[in-house]
Input
Amino acid sequence: MNATLVALATIFSQLSLLAFGGGNTILPEMQRQVVEVHHWMPASEFSALFALAQAAPGPNMMIVTLVGWHVAGWAGMLVTSIAKFGPSSLVTIAVLHAWDRFKDRPWRRIAQKGLVPVTAGLVAASAVLIARASDPSWIAWAITGVCAALAFRTKIHPLWLLGAGSLIGLTGFGQ
Amino acid sequence: MKPAISPPASADPGTDAGLVTPTVRDLFLGFLGLGFTSFGGALPLARRTIVDQRRWLTASEFTDLLGLCQFLPGGNVINLSVALGMRFQGWRGALAGILGLIAGPSLVVIGLGVIYERTQSDPHIRHLFVGLAAAAAGLLISMALKIVLPLRREPPAAVVAALGFLAIAVLRTPLLPTMLVLTPIGIALAARAVRNQGDSR
Output
């Protein structure tokens, strides 16, 4: 149990500091650690937890809380949340004071621009890994494809898509 | 579900000068409300709450602070809650901001987790989750497309993105070494692009 908490703390504090470009960039590493390295759950379950977290309100990284809770109960949730949100928050506080001095420097724009392709590759990897771990039925792929197209082309609220996907799933059609 | 979130801020006679300095309690409650009501990403609602409704920051101050929060590691709205709290009320404010933001969603998500674990053997619920997970995967794909497609016009950057994708999704390389290799390459390319612009070639 204690070893599990230490492992959670180590993994998520590292992820916290690597999450440039937001939470979705660290999803593949989280999945690798949770599924492949520590065998805490199968990939399909990780995708289900990701889906649950997407259906909940709030910042899009609530899967972190859910993974901690799923692996080690309330203690796991607490440790994981502190490890994930603590280090990046301390960095924010530390940099806040210097921000006014460096926000107009050219190197800041260069660094920000330089991170974009890295972020793009990581988010694309997230999308493929999560989609691949979902149910292999044709109807699930159809839901994924239609949701991706609608979210990409229209300004429809994501909650409608999640709701519609759930309802189609509930009918059991095609499964 | 929620027809009226709050009255429009335009009733307020104060102009841009009428900014409000939030107390620790305001920060906690403001971000608590934000956490509970923001579905599908908190950013659009964060702007409305902080700039239009509660008037903690002007629009340009918000954009500036958001620039910092997107530059640093971590979720941008999470960093924003910390930075805003710290700026107005120091450490206690920072803690109030982030705790307010994640308290509600944490409880909701754990509630959903409990329901999921209790009911996952029920075939109806299993079917529902297949649909939900498929839709969530679709949303993630569309987000990836929105970030990746603009790179078409910058082949070197596209190569960096492709290498990152290959390393993480196909080879399953750990994130730390991948970033240690790719980030300097990305930054060097960006620096070269800026220099070329400077030479107005």
Residues 2-102 of chain A form one domain.
